[in-house]
Write a structure and sequence with these properties.
The chain is α+β, with helices and mostly antiparallel strands and 754 residues long. 27% of the residues lie in helices and 27% in strands. The strands form 10 sheets. A 6-stranded antiparallel beta sheet has the order 28-27-26-32-33-34. A hairpin with an 8-residue loop joins strand 9 and strand 10. Helix 11 runs antiparallel to helix 13 (525-535). The radius of gyration is 30 Å and the shape is globular.
Length: 754
């Protein structure tokens, strides 16, 4: 009698012979005859019960293994130019296999989204499970994707999108469920035309777990915005192999009492500061300010796997419950973090200021430092205010007082320069131990925050000036002045509020600051600050120096955060090359792809900003969901054809008053004036008006808040009942809960005059 095969041998056979997987085929392959077939049957049942294989009619298949000929969808090339693909025929419960595509010279070009039929070979490489050879292209995926909650039905189920702007649900046939359970968060793609009830059909691609779990809020944003949150093994291995650096020709700064000042919950420390009075007789009352930045370039070298992953991510993304870092924790939280009392490599700049805060000179060094202390903003501020802690107290005279004195000089220079002076409080979502929102507060704006901010701005200017003088390629931080249309909209808002924005041929930040000063202390202050922010163009990265309008600076580059921004790493490499400090400076590839890098990291920055904003919206909706029915105070922050946006005072959350809830009269939308006016009552709803609203609905999964308008500028709002909405052949609509004025036009509201 032949020896019975092991479970592993049976699984290997099934994977290699997908057309010969019946019990008879397996018995024949292993020479099993007679009574031994009963034992084989028992093994197959065990494999089925354990979930390793599933029975399909009279054959068995391994759900966690791919057939040797599979349909794949090609992914974008990575930074090394390798093409990977995702299998479209995988139905396993574990981690989706990784497939490396190996194109031949004779193969047609492949791009992201292409669908191919390929022959697979099982491999045991660290970064992929299969290698694929093209058989033929079978089209390109243009299917729409959706992230939502799966709801089981009698014939499959449906998906309720988490996107607040989505109007329709998606139907899922039974054979496209991927085993999803009712209430699970899933990702799906459109699989066919509209089916029953007029809903688009979808097939589930991945299951993401419980949407109400404490970790789901940021997980939804990470997945929805495509933020890479898992490091490949080879990247982690490279980081783990890194060792602490010594002097090795660096300038020894270990005796200088550089300190880090960060938020109390900071996850890394990449900048340290120190200031002292300038002892030069030619600069009475002046200062020498040092800014030392973690030398990430010494660890993340051009063309390395660490470099490729950092460039792909572009930046770190911060959520209330987690951070998705640009670099593995071995670097970001350890070797590149300027921890107290530990020697760390750095690139530092010493900047000499006169008594009026003007920078007279600066010089860069590549050094080794040892942080004298890691303080929080609150610790530093308390010491300056006379409340010395055991940690900050000894640093008050030698470090903190000179640093704050240097800031006084810098603030005088800032006042002369007149950068944009917006006053917009920042929300902070605080979580309890179980991951749920415990409170929503507005962050305090301390002088200590401004001290570090001014030191970092000064160091960034010094980096840009040094590299311009060296004629070195670099990435500038560019902020262009607002366009004429946005500026005119700001001017109209100012005039409607009783203020004025001066006209001139050349717009300067000083003119906008005068408007902000006019509004300061009035009821319209928040409105004017918000309108000013909306009028600004978005900052971005560029190899061309177009200046920074908001900071009123001609030369500006990001130098101070290489742990969390790839742009700063490029600037560090440029400084290394310009000073001939080593071979880890700008590479030829860095310089050749500078424009593409600028565009890519500008995109990843916007991606992170949207993910962070969406996460805050969801946390706020979760926090307010227990207050549905409560009356709240707020201010109108946006007007659209479909409704009115209100920023709530207590939480800073944004909610929507749908136009359909305002009554039966028709409301005329004036885009230029930014108003809604009732056709019967003549009621005008405009930006900046104070309102009392009732919270009607708070949807944590989407982050949407729906409000009912109760009073406008302290006058009660009366309305006739709105007509019932009608519709045929439409899926169930989600409650109106758009998240920003950028959603305008995505929901059409039809009204009848009466």
């Amino acid at each position: 009698m032949s020896k019975l095969p092991t479970k592993a041998e049976i699984l290997d056979w099934i994977s290699a012979h997908p057309t010969q997987t019946s019990k008879r085929d397996i018995a024949k392959a292993f020479g099993i005859k007679g009574a031994a077939r009963i034992d084989l049957k028992q093994i197959l049942r065990q494999l089925e019960a354990e979930g390793h294989i599933e029975k399909r009619k009279k054959t068995y298949a391994d759900p966690d293994r791919l057939p040797p000929v599979s349909v794949l969808e090609v992914l974008p090339p990575n930074d090394q130019g390798d093409l990977f693909a995702r299998p479209l025929e995988w139905h396993g419960e574990g981690v989706e296999p990784i497939v490396l595509v190996l194109p031949r010279a004779s193969d047609p070009a492949l791009g992201a989204g292409d669908r191919i039929l390929a022959r697979l070979t099982v491999v045991h490489e660290e970064d992929h499970n299969y290698e694929a050879r093209l058989i033929r292209k079978i089209g390109r995926s243009s299917a729409r994707r959706v992230l939502g909650i799966f709801r089981k039905g009698s014939e499959g189920g449906r998906i309720v999108p988490i996107d607040k702007a989505a109007q329709l649900e998606w139907s899922v046939p039974e054979d496209a469920r991927l085993g999803a359970k009712d209430g699970e968060l899933v990702e799906a793609e459109q699989s066919g035309p509209k089916g029953r009830m007029g809903l688009p059909r979808a097939r589930i691609l991945s299951r993401l777990g419980d949407p109400s779990g404490p970790k789901a809020v940021s997980l939804i944003a990470i997945h929805q915005h495509g933020i890479p949150d898992d490091f490949p093994d080879e990247v982690l291995d490279a980081a783990d192999a890194a060792k602490p650096m010594g002097l090795n020709g660096r300038e020894d700064l270990r005796d200088m009492p550089l300190i880090t000042i960060d938020p109390s919950d900071a996850r890394d420390h990449d900048d340290a500061v120190y200031a002292q009075a300038d002892d030069s007789p030619d600069n009475a009352g002046g200062f020498v300010v040092w800014v030392a930045i973690a030398d990430v370039a010494g660890y993340v070298t051009p063309g390395s796997v660490l470099d490729g992953e950092a460039r792909k991510r572009g930046n770190s993304t911060y959520f209330p419950d987690r951070v998705v870092p640009m670099l593995p924790d071995r670097l970001s939280g350890d070797l590149c973090s300027l921890h107290e009392g530990v020697p760390r490599p750095c690139i530092a700049v010493a900047m000499t200021l006169d008594k009026d805060g003007n920078k007279l000179s600066h010089r860069f060094v590549r050094g080794l430092m040892r942080s004298a202390a890691s303080l929080s903003y609150e610790d530093a501020q308390a010491a300056i205010d006379g409340h010395r802690s055991d940690k900050a107290g000894p640093l008050l005279e030698p470090v903190l007082k000179p640093l704050f004195a240097a800031y006084d000089a810098l603030s005088a220079a800032r006042e002369r320069r007149q950068p944009l002076d917006l006053d917009l409080p920042e929300r902070k979502v605080e979580l309890a131990e179980d991951g749920r929102v415990s409170s929503v507060k507005f962050r305090d704006r301390l002088t200590a925050h401004k001290v570090i901010e001014e030191c970092m701005i000064l160091a960034n200017v010094a980096a840009a000036e040094t590299l311009l003088a060296a004629r070195s390629p670099l990435l500038f931080r560019v902020h262009e002045e607002p366009n004429a249309d946005k500026l005119e909209a700001l001017r109209n808002t100012a005039q409607a509020s009783g203020f004025a924005l001066a006209k001139g041929q050349v717009l300067k930040t000083a003119q906008i600051n005068r408007l902000l000063q006019q509004a300061a202390g009035t009821d319209e202050a928040e409105l004017i600050n918000m309108a000013t922010l909306r009028s600004m163009s978005q900052a971005y990265y560029s190899p061309d120096n177009l200046g920074h309008f908001g900071l009123a600076l001609a030369n500006y580059a990001h130098f101070t955060s290489p742990i969390r921004r790839y742009s700063d790493l490029i600037v560090h490499r440029a400084l290394i090359s310009a000073h001939r400090w080593g071979k880890d400076g700008l590479s030829d590839a860095d310089m050749e792809t500078l424009q593409k890098t600028a565009e890519h990291i500008s995109d990843t920055e916007r991606r992170s900003m949207m993910a962070e904003r969406d996460t805050t919206d969801r946390y706020l909706a979760s926090y307010l969901s227990e207050r549905v029915g409560d009356e709240m105070e707020g201010r109108i922050s946006g007007i659209a054809r479909f409704g009115v946006f209100v920023k709530l005072d207590d939480s800073g959350a944004d909610g929507l008053v749908p136009v359909r809830s305002l009554g039966s009269e028709y409301f005329h939308f004036d885009r230029e004036a930014g108003t809604l006016m009732g056709s019967d009552t003549g009621m005008v709803i405009a930006l900046g008006q104070r309102v009392t609203v009732r919270l009607v609905e708070a949807e944590p999964v989407t982050g949407g808040l729906e409000l009912e308008l109760l009073a406008l500028d302290n006058e009660a709002v009366s309305r006739a009942p709105a007509p019932a909405r009608r519709g045929r052949g439409m899926g169930k609509r989600k409650p109106v809960a758009a998240k920003s004025r950028g959603d305008k036009g995505k929901r059409k509201v039809t009204r009848r005059r009466r």
